[in-house]
Amino acid sequence: MVTDTDTGTDTTYDVIIIGAGPVGENVADRVRQGGLSAAVVERELVGGECSYWACIPTKALLRSGAALRAARQVPGAREALTGSLDVAAVLRRRDDFASHWNDQSQVSWLGQAGVSLYRGRGRITSTRVVEVTGGNGATTVLNARHAVVIATGSGALIPDVAGLREADPWTNREAAAAAAVPGRLAILGGGAVASEMATAFAELGASVTMLVRDGVLPRAEPFAGDLVVDSLRDAGVSVRLGTETTSVQRGPDGTVHIGLADGEQIEADEILVAAGRVPRTQDIGLDTVGLTPGARLEVDDTLRILAADGAPVGGGWLYAAGDVNGRALLTHQGKYQARAVGDVIVARAKGEPVQDGRWGRHVATADQRAVPQVVFTDPEIASVGLTAAAAAAAGLRIRVVDQDLGAVQGSTLHADGYRGQARMVVDEERQVIVGFTLAGPDVAELLHAATIAVVGEVPLDRLWHAIPAFPTISEVWLRLLEAYGR
């Protein structure tokens, strides 16, 4: 059922989910598979940030350039190239993957899954009660028998820079949905979004300047950021490290004037703010349950929202999954949380045992220990678990083993001049890998093997018998284990 809201309607479901992005959809699906009824509330497009303004359209923007780079690195294929990227074709492909910002297919999927959809803004008004205000101003009161789940995601952080908000900056949304490529693009930030969009728009013909205060990919292993900076600069991107932006102003002709702390002025046609994310928890009724609107939601191991005293809110009927709890701001991790939340709500509703042990099905253990992530820059950066610095800070006695990916036979066959690096971080007490990072062309598809090794805590002497196929880039595993054994 899809409804905008009908005045006076009072409907009861087992579970109500506020937010119909990938996380909310997966919670609803899991609840339905467990035999409970579910309704989701969404004020924008069903499918959320990932489908329309983040993961999917941005990777579509990046893929054409990556394919062209790959062809240029292989003799025989290189000679077949006759031109540069067709920008219009890239944008059309991006539009197709974003479903032209039409969510009808996702709405249909909800219907097939037996999930009711209410379009409008959802607010918690009392215990297990959500009021939905539709676009027509009418309201619907939804009652939950067992649980309410907040899955409203996150939005772009706009730093407190003089004039920035008034300059109408781009966020990831405007960049992902851009109808044209600006001649000059300034990017404020150095994280994954900033680095990926610098890569994409430089390949699409923009003159790109990155204004970076805290380093490029500062949470990754240092070599990852260094390789990406080198590549961006080779592509013509001006990467300004250690830069503090102090003012932004958009002139009458649309030109953006950016002031830096050292007095320099930079001009651009657009400025993209990619300086972090904030939870979308404003105006959803958190104050009615004693929580602070706009705040990140603290959760226990089964993702129940906790009050200031550390106890579950209202005895445990309110949950938070995905970006709103701040544990791991990645779509795949949010969906992982969604499965755990859906299953634990069903178990509690049916009076079944809650499996909340370290690796129980009702907890999101990996969000604290083994988060995989890929940054689709040139080179790709794929990582899981802890960096060497994070592992040392956690008090582990570690050994770090590095390997030049360009020296692996499979890499030299994959592309001429292949550049990359791999690192494994070993917990010496347990002889298991706690962190793994790969940097190089097309390394994203190697990441899941590392994720299994970290999550499964596979002993190194057992990994020695996992023989990589030859000649593939996966041979890096053998080289790393050989280096460790020396």
Automatic annotation (TrEMBL):
Looking up Pfam families in the UniProt record yields:
Pyr_redox_2, Pyr_redox_dim
Q: Tell whether Flavoprotein is among the UniProt keywords.
A: yes
Superkingdom of origin organism: Bacteria
Question: Keyword set for this entry?
Answer: FAD, Flavoprotein, NAD
Residue ranges of every copy of the Pyridine nucleotide-disulphide oxidoreductase dimerisation domain listed in the record: 371-477
The chain positions of domain FAD/NAD(P)-binding read: 13-333
Which cofactors does this gene product need? FAD
User: Could you say which protein family the record assigns here?
Assistant: Belongs to the class-I pyridine nucleotide-disulfide oxidoreductase family.
Name of the protein in its database record:
NAD(P)/FAD-dependent oxidoreductase
